[in-house]
Amino acid sequence: xxxxxxxxxxxxxxxxxxxxxxxxxxxxxxxxxxxxxxxxxxxxxxxxxxxxxxxxxxxxxxxxxxxxxxxxxxxxxxxxxxxxxxxxxxxxxxxxxxxxxxxxxxxxxxxxxxxxxxxxxxxxxxxxxxxxxxxxxxxxxxxxxxxxxxxxxxxxxxxxxxxxxxxxxxxxxxxxxxxxxxxxxxxxxxxxxxxxxxxxxxxxxxxxxxxxxxxxxxxxxxxxxxxxxxxxxxxxxxxxxxxxxxxxxxxxxxxxxxxxxxxxxxxxxxxxxxxxx
Length: 277
Prior knowledge:
The protein has helices at residues 29-47, 56-80, 103-121, 125-143, 145-150, 178-194, 204-221, 235-276; strands spanning 2-6, 11-15, 18-22, 25-28, 164-168, 171-175, 229-230, 233-234.
């Protein structure tokens, strides 16, 4: 039984990470939150179908490959950067129920899957990403609550008013609820993305996601106590910085290219006008 407190709200919660059992199979809250995230992401995709020349039926076909591949790639990413924990017992790599998924691994696997799928179906890859990024953001916002039920992905100790009290190895400590920070951050990002209806350029939603999530994760990762490390470097923090910079560079490059294109059109119109005179 897990115990979590929120002193600011005078809340003292006790719960199990197992929601219920079916025929002896234990169903975890984490799994329920992931399934809820997937269903909500699909619902958002269905509602946004009218803004893109992409059939929702193609999205359903894509998900048949996307969901399992993203989960597997999230696991591979986690294992690669925690390999010392698995060397002595390699079979535990297959124990998904024991935890250990990394969102960046899932995103990388998902993007590669989308790219191959788009090539096969002759769908514009960037348009698909613009279409899907709001769903990714809302999925992350919901999925992070799986970390709450597992009492994981929390931060360093703090005395801030919104601190979260937990028991770590039997000792009561009060920490940053970093799962909540990321859930709230990605929810705000979702609201921003969902309101990009008339794109300034193809890829605008993707760039906005890269900038937004890169910034959110880079800041939050510095507070977490369970970061995947490469020496003294937090892998996710470094990758977040790279994604943030990439998003900014692409965004301003696209804006510059559009401005130059518009200037050329205006010059052409002016020349045509002068010819008539």
